[in-house]
Model the fold of this input.
Amino acid sequence: MPLFYPIHINIKGRKCLVVGGGKTAERKVNRLVRYGGKVVVVSPVVTSSIENLSCKKRVAWYKRGYRSTDLHQAFLVFCATNNRGLNKKISREAQRKGILVNVVDSLSECSFVSPALVERGCLTISISTEGLAPLLSRKIRKELEISYGQEYRQYTKLIAHARNAIVRDKGIRAREKRKRLECLLSMNLISRLKSGERVTPQKVLKALERSEIC
Done:
């Protein structure tokens, strides 16, 4: 079995082909749309969710079977049909053209796999078992979803805002910047956010300036 290299790829504006229109294809399509892919779906029949995205012009749906020309200018491909022979054919054609391909039910025919994800705003945690133990990946994902709750959306925004302000501040020396950046993660922001407190970036920066922590 192949050993997959972990990587996050920018797909914004790039053609992402999904062959198939069932629930598995739907999950792939929704994630590709969320990350800015130029999504093309090829399938005679699709779920109502995919059809709705097509009506909104968020995906292009070709209501027919797969053609080799569908691979033209594709950056990556998901093979999500219930036809093993067709999935295998698409995988071979894509790999000959140097296109990244994922076959949802055949690890050996994939050039990439999709990890289980925990997404909290700009924080993304990927879990992978190299496609060999997907049930374990899902179990770990559920555990992480509890440990890293929705408050991490706001938390990461606060951290990012404060970090940018500190780095760009020309009025403090490099040593003090390092100290404030180290202290930033020591602040008890998570529990404050969980309690419903309104914590602003300005409050965080003022606390760091006064050295109230560390």
About this structure: The chain has a mean pLDDT of 92. Residues 151-209 form one domain. The chain has two domains: 15-114, 151-209.
